[in-house]
Design a protein that fits this description.
Shape: extended
Strand content: 35-45%
Order of helices and strands: HEEHHHEHEEEEEEEEEEEEEEEEHEEEH
Mean pLDDT: 77
Largest sheet: 6 strands, antiparallel
Number of strands: 22
Number of helices: 7
Distance between the termini: 63 Å
Helix content: 10-25%
Radius of gyration: 44 Å
Structural class: alpha+beta
Length: 421
Protein backbone atom coordinates (compact mmCIF):
# COMPACT_ATOMS: atom_id res chain seq x y z
CA UNK A 1 0.00 0.00 0.00
CA UNK A 2 2.69 2.66 0.74
CA UNK A 3 4.42 1.89 -2.60
CA UNK A 4 1.19 2.32 -4.54
CA UNK A 5 0.56 5.67 -2.85
CA UNK A 6 4.10 6.79 -3.69
CA UNK A 7 3.55 5.86 -7.34
CA UNK A 8 0.34 7.88 -7.45
CA UNK A 9 2.03 10.88 -5.86
CA UNK A 10 4.90 10.64 -8.34
CA UNK A 11 2.51 10.47 -11.30
CA UNK A 12 0.55 13.44 -9.99
CA UNK A 13 3.76 15.40 -9.60
CA UNK A 14 4.83 14.48 -13.12
CA UNK A 15 1.61 15.68 -14.71
CA UNK A 16 1.61 18.90 -12.71
CA UNK A 17 5.31 19.79 -13.01
CA UNK A 18 5.70 18.92 -16.70
CA UNK A 19 3.11 21.42 -17.85
CA UNK A 20 4.48 24.62 -19.38
CA UNK A 21 4.34 27.60 -17.05
CA UNK A 22 2.40 29.60 -19.63
CA UNK A 23 -0.87 27.80 -18.67
CA UNK A 24 -1.09 30.04 -15.69
CA UNK A 25 -1.83 33.30 -17.37
CA UNK A 26 -3.05 36.72 -16.46
CA UNK A 27 -5.87 38.66 -18.04
CA UNK A 28 -6.19 38.34 -21.79
CA UNK A 29 -4.26 40.81 -23.85
CA UNK A 30 -1.60 41.23 -21.09
CA UNK A 31 2.06 40.20 -21.09
CA UNK A 32 3.62 38.67 -17.98
CA UNK A 33 6.86 36.90 -17.03
CA UNK A 34 6.40 33.16 -17.74
CA UNK A 35 8.72 30.20 -17.95
CA UNK A 36 8.70 27.59 -20.73
CA UNK A 37 11.25 25.20 -22.19
CA UNK A 38 11.46 27.25 -25.32
CA UNK A 39 11.73 30.80 -23.99
CA UNK A 40 13.28 30.55 -20.54
CA UNK A 41 12.85 33.55 -18.23
CA UNK A 42 11.85 36.29 -20.61
CA UNK A 43 8.70 38.15 -21.55
CA UNK A 44 6.43 36.43 -24.05
CA UNK A 45 3.05 37.38 -25.38
CA UNK A 46 0.21 35.52 -23.68
CA UNK A 47 -2.67 37.46 -25.17
CA UNK A 48 -3.73 37.52 -28.80
CA UNK A 49 -1.02 35.27 -30.29
CA UNK A 50 -3.20 33.21 -32.59
CA UNK A 51 -5.66 30.36 -32.52
CA UNK A 52 -2.98 27.72 -32.11
CA UNK A 53 -1.74 29.18 -28.83
CA UNK A 54 -5.23 29.22 -27.37
CA UNK A 55 -5.95 25.67 -28.50
CA UNK A 56 -2.72 24.40 -26.89
CA UNK A 57 -3.63 26.08 -23.63
CA UNK A 58 -7.09 24.56 -23.61
CA UNK A 59 -5.67 21.08 -24.27
CA UNK A 60 -3.24 21.50 -21.40
CA UNK A 61 -6.03 22.49 -19.03
CA UNK A 62 -8.14 19.51 -20.08
CA UNK A 63 -5.22 17.15 -19.55
CA UNK A 64 -4.54 18.52 -16.09
CA UNK A 65 -8.19 18.25 -15.06
CA UNK A 66 -8.43 14.64 -16.20
CA UNK A 67 -5.23 13.77 -14.35
CA UNK A 68 -6.45 15.32 -11.12
CA UNK A 69 -9.84 13.57 -11.32
CA UNK A 70 -8.18 10.20 -11.97
CA UNK A 71 -5.81 10.54 -9.01
CA UNK A 72 -8.61 11.66 -6.70
CA UNK A 73 -10.86 8.74 -7.69
CA UNK A 74 -8.09 6.20 -7.12
CA UNK A 75 -7.22 7.74 -3.77
CA UNK A 76 -10.79 7.62 -2.48
CA UNK A 77 -11.57 4.12 -3.76
CA UNK A 78 -8.33 2.44 -2.76
CA UNK A 79 -9.05 -0.21 -0.07
CA UNK A 80 -7.44 0.59 3.27
CA UNK A 81 -7.22 -1.24 6.58
CA UNK A 82 -7.63 1.01 9.64
CA UNK A 83 -5.00 0.82 12.30
CA UNK A 84 -5.98 -1.37 15.23
CA UNK A 85 -6.48 0.65 18.40
CA UNK A 86 -4.98 -0.51 21.64
CA UNK A 87 -8.47 -0.90 23.15
CA UNK A 88 -11.87 -0.68 21.59
CA UNK A 89 -13.48 2.71 22.31
CA UNK A 90 -17.00 1.61 21.39
CA UNK A 91 -18.33 0.92 24.92
CA UNK A 92 -16.86 4.17 26.27
CA UNK A 93 -18.45 6.18 23.46
CA UNK A 94 -21.80 4.55 24.18
CA UNK A 95 -21.58 5.49 27.86
CA UNK A 96 -20.71 9.08 27.03
CA UNK A 97 -23.64 9.35 24.65
CA UNK A 98 -25.98 8.10 27.36
CA UNK A 99 -24.66 10.69 29.82
CA UNK A 100 -25.00 13.55 27.34
CA UNK A 101 -28.59 12.71 26.46
CA UNK A 102 -29.67 13.71 29.99
CA UNK A 103 -29.85 12.39 33.54
CA UNK A 104 -31.46 9.09 34.21
CA UNK A 105 -35.00 9.01 35.50
CA UNK A 106 -34.98 9.43 39.32
CA UNK A 107 -35.96 6.38 41.29
CA UNK A 108 -38.96 6.30 43.61
CA UNK A 109 -36.90 7.09 46.71
CA UNK A 110 -35.43 10.21 45.10
CA UNK A 111 -38.86 11.35 43.95
CA UNK A 112 -40.27 10.79 47.43
CA UNK A 113 -37.42 12.75 49.03
CA UNK A 114 -37.80 15.64 46.60
CA UNK A 115 -41.55 15.71 47.15
CA UNK A 116 -41.10 15.70 50.92
CA UNK A 117 -38.61 18.54 50.76
CA UNK A 118 -40.89 20.60 48.55
CA UNK A 119 -43.83 19.85 50.82
CA UNK A 120 -41.80 21.11 53.79
CA UNK A 121 -40.66 24.23 51.92
CA UNK A 122 -44.17 24.97 50.68
CA UNK A 123 -45.65 24.48 54.14
CA UNK A 124 -43.00 26.71 55.73
CA UNK A 125 -43.53 29.45 53.16
CA UNK A 126 -47.29 29.21 53.48
CA UNK A 127 -47.03 29.56 57.25
CA UNK A 128 -44.69 32.58 56.99
CA UNK A 129 -46.76 34.35 54.34
CA UNK A 130 -50.18 34.11 55.97
CA UNK A 131 -49.95 37.82 56.81
CA UNK A 132 -48.66 40.92 54.97
CA UNK A 133 -44.98 41.73 55.33
CA UNK A 134 -45.88 44.54 57.75
CA UNK A 135 -47.38 42.06 60.25
CA UNK A 136 -45.83 39.11 62.05
CA UNK A 137 -46.91 36.54 64.60
CA UNK A 138 -45.08 36.84 67.93
CA UNK A 139 -44.38 34.22 70.57
CA UNK A 140 -42.33 34.00 73.74
CA UNK A 141 -39.38 32.91 71.53
CA UNK A 142 -39.40 36.11 69.43
CA UNK A 143 -36.46 37.50 71.36
CA UNK A 144 -35.27 40.12 68.86
CA UNK A 145 -38.66 41.78 68.46
CA UNK A 146 -39.51 41.55 72.15
CA UNK A 147 -36.12 42.91 73.22
CA UNK A 148 -35.15 45.61 70.70
CA UNK A 149 -31.60 46.77 71.20
CA UNK A 150 -30.56 43.79 73.33
CA UNK A 151 -26.95 42.62 73.19
CA UNK A 152 -25.57 39.12 72.71
CA UNK A 153 -22.03 39.11 74.10
CA UNK A 154 -20.98 36.02 76.05
CA UNK A 155 -17.84 34.92 77.85
CA UNK A 156 -14.94 34.51 75.44
CA UNK A 157 -11.68 32.66 75.86
CA UNK A 158 -8.52 34.74 75.63
CA UNK A 159 -4.83 33.81 75.36
CA UNK A 160 -2.78 34.44 78.49
CA UNK A 161 0.58 33.87 76.80
CA UNK A 162 1.91 33.27 73.31
CA UNK A 163 4.49 30.79 74.62
CA UNK A 164 2.40 28.81 77.12
CA UNK A 165 -1.29 29.30 76.33
CA UNK A 166 -3.77 28.49 79.08
CA UNK A 167 -7.33 27.84 77.81
CA UNK A 168 -8.89 28.56 81.21
CA UNK A 169 -8.81 32.35 80.84
CA UNK A 170 -12.10 34.01 79.77
CA UNK A 171 -13.58 37.50 79.69
CA UNK A 172 -17.00 39.13 79.37
CA UNK A 173 -17.07 42.59 77.82
CA UNK A 174 -20.64 43.83 77.34
CA UNK A 175 -23.21 46.59 77.96
CA UNK A 176 -26.86 46.82 78.87
CA UNK A 177 -28.04 48.24 75.51
CA UNK A 178 -27.07 48.82 71.89
CA UNK A 179 -29.09 51.90 70.82
CA UNK A 180 -28.48 55.23 72.56
CA UNK A 181 -30.83 58.13 71.81
CA UNK A 182 -30.58 61.59 73.28
CA UNK A 183 -29.74 61.54 76.99
CA UNK A 184 -29.78 57.74 77.22
CA UNK A 185 -26.63 56.12 78.62
CA UNK A 186 -25.18 52.61 78.68
CA UNK A 187 -23.42 50.72 81.48
CA UNK A 188 -20.35 48.91 80.19
CA UNK A 189 -18.91 46.05 82.25
CA UNK A 190 -15.73 44.02 82.00
CA UNK A 191 -15.19 40.80 83.98
CA UNK A 192 -12.33 38.32 83.97
CA UNK A 193 -12.16 34.64 85.03
CA UNK A 194 -9.66 31.85 85.28
CA UNK A 195 -11.79 28.77 85.12
CA UNK A 196 -14.75 29.62 87.37
CA UNK A 197 -12.75 31.90 89.65
CA UNK A 198 -13.15 35.68 89.23
CA UNK A 199 -9.82 37.44 88.70
CA UNK A 200 -9.06 40.96 89.82
CA UNK A 201 -8.24 43.18 86.92
CA UNK A 202 -5.14 45.32 86.87
CA UNK A 203 -4.94 48.45 84.78
CA UNK A 204 -8.03 49.03 82.59
CA UNK A 205 -8.52 51.77 79.99
CA UNK A 206 -11.70 52.42 77.98
CA UNK A 207 -12.03 54.88 75.09
CA UNK A 208 -15.19 55.89 73.21
CA UNK A 209 -14.81 56.71 69.53
CA UNK A 210 -17.55 58.26 67.35
CA UNK A 211 -17.60 58.14 63.56
CA UNK A 212 -18.72 61.35 61.85
CA UNK A 213 -20.53 61.60 58.52
CA UNK A 214 -17.39 62.72 56.69
CA UNK A 215 -15.48 59.66 57.90
CA UNK A 216 -13.41 61.30 60.62
CA UNK A 217 -13.46 60.11 64.23
CA UNK A 218 -13.72 61.74 67.64
CA UNK A 219 -12.61 60.03 70.82
CA UNK A 220 -12.96 60.47 74.57
CA UNK A 221 -11.52 58.50 77.51
CA UNK A 222 -14.14 56.94 79.81
CA UNK A 223 -13.91 56.79 83.59
CA UNK A 224 -13.56 53.20 84.84
CA UNK A 225 -14.64 52.20 88.37
CA UNK A 226 -14.31 48.97 90.32
CA UNK A 227 -17.43 46.86 90.90
CA UNK A 228 -17.95 43.39 92.27
CA UNK A 229 -16.03 40.88 90.14
CA UNK A 230 -14.93 43.45 87.55
CA UNK A 231 -15.00 47.05 86.39
CA UNK A 232 -17.64 49.33 84.93
CA UNK A 233 -17.82 52.52 82.84
CA UNK A 234 -20.74 54.80 82.01
CA UNK A 235 -21.17 55.76 78.35
CA UNK A 236 -23.19 58.97 77.95
CA UNK A 237 -22.28 60.22 74.46
CA UNK A 238 -24.86 63.00 74.35
CA UNK A 239 -22.86 64.88 76.97
CA UNK A 240 -19.91 64.86 74.55
CA UNK A 241 -21.33 64.79 71.00
CA UNK A 242 -25.00 65.92 70.93
CA UNK A 243 -24.64 66.91 67.27
CA UNK A 244 -23.57 63.44 66.09
CA UNK A 245 -25.46 60.34 64.97
CA UNK A 246 -24.27 56.96 63.77
CA UNK A 247 -21.75 54.32 64.76
CA UNK A 248 -19.95 54.50 68.09
CA UNK A 249 -17.28 52.11 69.43
CA UNK A 250 -15.77 51.57 72.86
CA UNK A 251 -12.34 49.95 73.09
CA UNK A 252 -11.04 48.42 76.32
CA UNK A 253 -7.42 47.55 77.10
CA UNK A 254 -6.72 45.60 80.26
CA UNK A 255 -4.23 43.36 82.02
CA UNK A 256 -3.93 41.14 85.09
CA UNK A 257 -1.34 39.02 86.86
CA UNK A 258 -0.09 36.17 84.66
CA UNK A 259 -2.08 37.57 81.76
CA UNK A 260 -0.69 39.33 78.73
CA UNK A 261 -2.21 42.72 77.80
CA UNK A 262 -5.63 42.30 76.15
CA UNK A 263 -8.02 44.49 74.15
CA UNK A 264 -11.65 44.29 73.04
CA UNK A 265 -14.32 46.43 71.38
CA UNK A 266 -18.06 47.09 71.75
CA UNK A 267 -20.20 48.71 69.05
CA UNK A 268 -23.20 50.99 69.59
CA UNK A 269 -25.56 53.16 67.54
CA UNK A 270 -26.00 56.72 68.82
CA UNK A 271 -28.41 59.54 67.97
CA UNK A 272 -27.52 62.84 69.61
CA UNK A 273 -30.22 65.14 70.92
CA UNK A 274 -29.59 67.60 68.08
CA UNK A 275 -30.10 64.82 65.53
CA UNK A 276 -33.37 63.36 66.83
CA UNK A 277 -35.65 63.45 63.76
CA UNK A 278 -39.07 63.23 65.47
CA UNK A 279 -40.90 62.72 68.75
CA UNK A 280 -43.93 60.62 69.66
CA UNK A 281 -46.64 62.95 70.89
CA UNK A 282 -48.39 60.27 72.96
CA UNK A 283 -51.59 60.53 70.94
CA UNK A 284 -52.89 57.03 70.04
CA UNK A 285 -56.25 55.88 68.68
CA UNK A 286 -57.44 52.36 67.77
CA UNK A 287 -60.07 51.24 65.26
CA UNK A 288 -61.09 48.39 62.94
CA UNK A 289 -60.20 48.75 59.26
CA UNK A 290 -61.30 46.00 56.84
CA UNK A 291 -61.23 43.41 59.62
CA UNK A 292 -57.77 44.46 60.89
CA UNK A 293 -56.86 46.34 64.08
CA UNK A 294 -55.21 49.70 63.36
CA UNK A 295 -53.48 52.16 65.68
CA UNK A 296 -52.88 55.80 64.73
CA UNK A 297 -49.70 57.13 66.38
CA UNK A 298 -49.12 60.87 66.59
CA UNK A 299 -45.65 62.26 65.83
CA UNK A 300 -44.00 65.65 65.74
CA UNK A 301 -41.62 65.37 62.78
CA UNK A 302 -38.58 67.64 62.66
CA UNK A 303 -36.74 66.06 59.72
CA UNK A 304 -38.87 64.84 56.79
CA UNK A 305 -37.97 61.55 55.20
CA UNK A 306 -38.71 57.85 55.18
CA UNK A 307 -39.63 56.46 58.60
CA UNK A 308 -40.10 53.01 60.09
CA UNK A 309 -42.32 52.72 63.20
CA UNK A 310 -42.81 49.43 65.08
CA UNK A 311 -44.82 48.13 68.02
CA UNK A 312 -45.70 44.87 69.80
CA UNK A 313 -49.19 43.74 70.75
CA UNK A 314 -50.13 41.65 73.83
CA UNK A 315 -53.44 39.99 74.68
CA UNK A 316 -55.40 40.34 77.92
CA UNK A 317 -53.32 37.60 79.58
CA UNK A 318 -50.06 39.45 78.90
CA UNK A 319 -48.94 37.10 76.10
CA UNK A 320 -47.28 38.66 73.02
CA UNK A 321 -48.90 37.64 69.75
CA UNK A 322 -48.46 40.40 67.16
CA UNK A 323 -45.88 42.76 65.68
CA UNK A 324 -46.51 45.43 63.06
CA UNK A 325 -44.61 48.21 61.34
CA UNK A 326 -45.27 51.40 59.43
CA UNK A 327 -42.87 52.05 56.57
CA UNK A 328 -43.38 55.29 54.66
CA UNK A 329 -42.60 58.94 54.23
CA UNK A 330 -43.45 61.55 56.86
CA UNK A 331 -43.32 65.27 56.18
CA UNK A 332 -42.31 67.93 58.66
CA UNK A 333 -44.87 68.88 61.32
CA UNK A 334 -47.68 67.01 63.04
CA UNK A 335 -48.06 63.63 61.41
CA UNK A 336 -49.67 60.25 62.05
CA UNK A 337 -48.25 56.76 61.43
CA UNK A 338 -50.57 53.77 61.31
CA UNK A 339 -49.72 50.30 62.67
CA UNK A 340 -52.05 47.66 61.21
CA UNK A 341 -52.30 44.18 62.79
CA UNK A 342 -53.72 41.62 60.38
CA UNK A 343 -57.05 40.19 61.56
CA UNK A 344 -55.94 36.59 61.03
CA UNK A 345 -53.34 37.09 63.79
CA UNK A 346 -56.09 37.30 66.41
CA UNK A 347 -57.67 34.03 65.24
CA UNK A 348 -54.39 32.15 64.92
CA UNK A 349 -53.34 33.21 68.43
CA UNK A 350 -56.89 33.05 69.83
CA UNK A 351 -56.05 36.42 71.38
CA UNK A 352 -58.68 37.98 73.59
CA UNK A 353 -58.92 41.70 74.33
CA UNK A 354 -58.44 44.30 75.51
CA UNK A 355 -55.08 44.50 73.74
CA UNK A 356 -51.92 46.22 74.95
CA UNK A 357 -49.72 48.11 72.46
CA UNK A 358 -46.21 48.41 73.86
CA UNK A 359 -42.52 48.87 72.96
CA UNK A 360 -43.35 51.56 70.42
CA UNK A 361 -40.17 52.65 68.66
CA UNK A 362 -39.12 54.19 65.37
CA UNK A 363 -36.37 55.71 63.28
CA UNK A 364 -35.70 57.79 60.20
CA UNK A 365 -34.01 55.64 57.55
CA UNK A 366 -30.88 57.03 55.90
CA UNK A 367 -29.35 54.11 53.98
CA UNK A 368 -27.32 56.38 51.70
CA UNK A 369 -25.31 57.94 54.54
CA UNK A 370 -22.80 56.73 57.12
CA UNK A 371 -25.41 57.38 59.81
CA UNK A 372 -27.71 54.62 58.59
CA UNK A 373 -30.63 55.83 60.70
CA UNK A 374 -31.63 58.44 63.26
CA UNK A 375 -33.67 57.02 66.12
CA UNK A 376 -36.76 58.45 67.79
CA UNK A 377 -36.87 58.27 71.61
CA UNK A 378 -39.20 55.51 72.75
CA UNK A 379 -42.67 56.57 73.75
CA UNK A 380 -42.12 55.26 77.25
CA UNK A 381 -45.71 54.22 77.91
CA UNK A 382 -48.13 51.50 76.85
CA UNK A 383 -51.56 51.85 75.30
CA UNK A 384 -54.63 49.71 76.08
CA UNK A 385 -57.37 49.47 73.44
CA UNK A 386 -60.48 51.45 74.30
CA UNK A 387 -63.09 49.36 72.50
CA UNK A 388 -64.38 45.93 73.50
CA UNK A 389 -63.20 43.95 70.47
CA UNK A 390 -64.32 40.35 69.84
CA UNK A 391 -62.69 37.73 67.61
CA UNK A 392 -65.64 37.91 65.24
CA UNK A 393 -64.68 41.54 64.56
CA UNK A 394 -61.49 40.46 62.78
CA UNK A 395 -61.23 38.80 59.41
CA UNK A 396 -60.06 35.17 59.41
CA UNK A 397 -58.84 34.72 55.83
CA UNK A 398 -55.26 34.28 54.66
CA UNK A 399 -53.71 37.35 53.08
CA UNK A 400 -53.29 36.89 49.34
CA UNK A 401 -50.97 38.75 46.94
CA UNK A 402 -49.98 38.10 43.30
CA UNK A 403 -46.42 37.37 44.41
CA UNK A 404 -47.57 34.83 47.01
CA UNK A 405 -49.80 33.08 44.46
CA UNK A 406 -46.96 32.88 41.94
CA UNK A 407 -44.51 31.42 44.45
CA UNK A 408 -47.05 28.87 45.63
CA UNK A 409 -47.67 27.81 42.02
CA UNK A 410 -43.92 27.39 41.44
CA UNK A 411 -43.54 25.28 44.58
CA UNK A 412 -46.52 23.11 43.64
CA UNK A 413 -45.05 22.58 40.16
CA UNK A 414 -41.71 21.60 41.69
CA UNK A 415 -43.50 19.20 44.04
CA UNK A 416 -45.33 17.48 41.17
CA UNK A 417 -42.09 17.03 39.24
CA UNK A 418 -40.21 15.78 42.31
CA UNK A 419 -37.56 18.49 42.04
CA UNK A 420 -35.51 18.62 45.29
CA UNK A 421 -35.72 22.03 46.93
Amino acid sequence: MPRAREALNARLCYHFCSLPASWVRGPWGKTKMTRTKETGNRPVATGKTGDRTRQDSRKNLIRLSLALLTVLAVWLLWPTTPERPQSSPAPMVAELIEEETGPAEPDSETLALGTARNDDAAAAYEARSRYPSTTRRLSDDSFDLLNPGARYETRQRIPNSLDKPDPNWSVLFTADRYFLTGEESAKITLKLWHGDDPIELGRVEMTAEALTENGSTRSRRLEVVQIEEGVQALLAPNQIWPELAGALRVTAQFEADELMRQSGTLDFHFTGSKRIPAQFTGSIDDRIIAGNLAFDLGLDVRAPGRYRIEGNLFDVSGKPFGWARFDGRLDKGKQSAMLVYDGLLFHDAEAQGPYLLTQIRGRRLMPESRVGSEWIPELGKDYLTQSDYQLMDFRDTVWISPRRLKLMEMMEDARRRGVPH
